[in-house]
Amino acid sequence: MGRERSGRNLFYRLNQIYIQLPPLRERQEDIPVLARHFLDQANQVFKKAIRGFSPDAEALLIAYAWPGNARELRNVIERVVLLEMDDLVLPAHLPPEISGDRGFASPALADVGALFPSPLADVERRYIQAVLDRVGGNKTRAAGILQITRQTLRARLDESR
């Protein structure tokens, strides 16, 4: 009972403060700052040293509407850092919905067939496992990077067993 009451009290105390934050698409000046912050964080997590964004890649990030707001931006940056080997984020590294490229999102992905001459299910299982390994088994973060729900991730993991 005491725990429930203290939870309610905290809710009502926090509910007294209302912060209206416009969507990221209305704060384009924040996008490069947030992108660099997320890049620094992802570099640390994935032990990479990507220096920054090419001017074209930064322009694409600024121009994108970001329906998922800062969380979507973070997931995109984490995915780029996880998958790419270049020292600068280029437009080709960005997902097609941001770059406008409907071909392969990166040269690294174009070589997947050569790297994994296996059925698609095997490639998917290895990819999911690689992402999980990189995030220390955190399924929520892995699902965000993979752009699937945690429940879908769980189902894919169950299928591969």
N-to-C CA distance? 42 Å
Mean pLDDT: 82
CATH top level class name of the largest domain: Mainly Alpha
Question: How many beta strands in the DSSP annotation?
Answer: 2
The CATH topology of the largest domain, please? Helicase, Ruva Protein, domain 3
Helix percent reads 55-70%
Number of domains in the coordinates?
2
Radius of gyration, in Å, reads 19 Å
Strand content: under 5%
The succession of helices and strands, N to C, reads HHEHHEHHHHHH
Secondary structure class reads mainly alpha
* Overall body shape: globular
- What's the tally of helices? 10
Largest sheet: 2 strands, parallel
Model regions low in confidence, pLDDT < 50 over at least 5 residues = 104-116
Q: Give the second-level CATH assignment, the architecture of the largest domain.
A: Orthogonal Bundle
> What's the arrangement of strands in the largest beta sheet?
1-2
Task: Give an overview of the whole structure.
Helix content is 61%, strand content 2%. The chain has 161 residues and is mostly helical. The chain has two domains: 27-103, Helicase, Ruva Protein, domain 3 (Orthogonal Bundle), CATH 1.10.8; 111-161, Arc Repressor Mutant, subunit A. The protein has a two-stranded parallel ribbon. The longest helix has 17 residues, at 30-46. The chain is globular.
